[in-house]
Amino acid sequence: MEFCYRNEIKLISSMGAACKGDPSSVRICDISQSLEDSLSRTCRRKLKPKGISNGIQVVFSTEKPPNADSNSGSGSGKASLMPLAEEEFLKGNVDELGVLNRFRVRILPVLGTMPGLFGLNMANHVVLEIANPKLVPEYVLGRFGLKFYDTPLQGLLGQLQRLGYGEVRVPWNLEDIMFLVEEVFRGKSVISGSTNRINLSMWAKGAGYDRDNIVVMTKEEQRKHEDLVLKKGMSVEEVYRKSVCDLAESRLHDVKWYEHYR
């Protein structure tokens, strides 16, 4: 990884497939954004002292890791390391059972289909990258459960109340919120690109709260935006750099475009 990064060689690396069984949880993203994956975490720890914190694409799974004690094998239905039989310990040094020196005696179980799915995702990414880098999609982490989408909506409703709209019932359902957050904004803040604590917010003052004036930003960014743009009346061009404004306008244009196909 370090060699490819230093020499500007494009790289996509497969992370841990052990104890994973949900094919819908396989994702591609920058290594700095991967989650629920201990191999990614270990790689980040080793790369950080070398001055590398991002810039490496990885395939991983957002599926929750085993809720188990890896030494005891206990857990709630998830695969985990099985304990060595007592008679193996009585034979002597269990490290001698490994096929190589310092090689783990036991390995985590891997469902045979999962590495194949990881490989297909990598192959698809590489083919698109070779054909035309512009064809590579802006991958969605898609880690959100259904309950997640209520938080951005409540954040927007709270904002509308603070701005004097009173008790508002927006005419949106769960699919509308999922559409905005994942399909349009890729689960990321339009300002910073962060995926943490995201909320929905009105973008331009005076444009109402229709879907074509709603963007995704973090909770902290929402409060700042609300104060400067929606209350004090500053234009978005005064507050944000041009690249942010262009991205927001592009996303809002996408909302109108996608509406024809929903």
Write a structural description:
One of its GO terms (cellular component) is mitochondrial outer membrane. GO terms for molecular function: tRNA threonylcarbamoyladenosine dehydratase; ubiquitin-like modifier activating enzyme activity. This protein has 262 residues and is α+β, with helices and mostly antiparallel strands. The chain folds into 3 domains: 2-66 and 109-135, NAD(P)-binding Rossmann-like Domain (Rossmann fold, 3-Layer(aba) Sandwich), CATH 3.40.50.720; 68-97, no CATH class; 146-259, no CATH class. The chain is 37% helix and 10% strand. It contains 9 helices and 7 strands, in the order H-E-E-H-E-E-E-H-H-H-H-E-E-H-H-H. A hairpin with a 4-residue loop joins strand 4 (68-69) and strand 5 (74-75). Mean pLDDT is 81; it is low at 68-76.
Q: What is the topological layout?
A:
Blueprint: H1 2-6, E1 12-14, E2 26-30, H2 38-47, E3 57-61, E4 68-69, E5 74-75, H3 86-90, H4 113-131, H5 150-162, H6 174-184, E6 198-202, E7 214-218, H7 219-231, H8 236-239, H9 242-259
Parallel strand pairs: 1-3
Antiparallel strand pairs: 2-3, 4-5, 6-7
GO molecular function: tRNA threonylcarbamoyladenosine dehydratase; ubiquitin-like modifier activating enzyme activity
InterPro entries: ThiF/MoeB/HesA (IPR045886), Ubiquitin-activating_enz (IPR035985)
